[in-house]
UniProtKB/TrEMBL annotation:
One of its GO terms (biological process) is cellular respiration. PANTHER family: COENZYME Q-BINDING PROTEIN COQ10, MITOCHONDRIAL (PTHR12901:SF10), SPERM PROTEIN HOMOLOG (PTHR12901). This is Ubiquinone-binding protein. Residues 12-134 form the Coenzyme Q-binding protein COQ10 START domain. Keywords: Ubiquinone. It comes from the Bacteria. Belongs to the ribosome association toxin RatA family. Pfam families: Polyketide_cyc.
Length: 161
């Protein structure tokens, strides 16, 4: 049902963007409506995670199997929860000056009520989520993508800090 695809060129490396998206535990720190995250299992190539989303009076937890194809892609396969299905893919392609980030999400809730409520704000919600990842990259890696702020000082939490 609701589907969103978006491509952006960001001044960060594919590895930086991959690390940011693959760090599911940190999603509640910056991702709108993500109120909880728990990694159930983790290997170099896959993780199993529970995310809890909260929106208005709704609070739902779902489990996903996440394929980690370092540094080029993160693919989410829905396991169980409030959706009929959920498909989500992030692709990271190096380009001059940074990375082309290709984001795709497609899902349908089991509940018609929840689908109706989310459907009214879906496009704006997804745009906010993509922007939240972009802002998180800036906070972690700085405006220049090298872990340095515009004044040359290390960004707290970046690899160069």
């Amino acid at each position: 049902m609701p589907t969103h695809a978006e491509k952006r060129i960001l001044r960060y490396t594919p590895e930086q963007m991959f690390n940011l998206v693959a760090d599911v535990r940190r999603y509640p720190e910056f991702l709108p409506w993500c109120v909880g995250a728990r990694v159930v299992s983790h290997t170099e190539t896959e993780l199993l995670a529970d995310l809890t989303i909260g929106f208005k009076m709704f609070r739902e937890t779902f489990r996903s199997r996440v394929s980690l194809e370092r540094p080029s892609a993160v693919r989410v396969q829905y396991e169980n929860g409030p959706f009929r299905y959920l498909n989500n893919t992030w692709k990271f392609t190096p380009v001059e000056g940074g990375t082309e980030v290709d984001f795709f999400v497609d899902f349908e809730f089991k509940s018609r009520l929840l689908q109706a409520v989310i459907g009214t704000v879906f496009n704006e919600a997804v745009r906010l989520m993509v922007r939240a990842f972009e802002r998180r990259a800036m906070a972690l890696y700085g405006r220049d993508g090298r872990g340095r702020a515009a004044d040359g000082q290390p960004v707290p939490g970046s690899p160069t800090a």
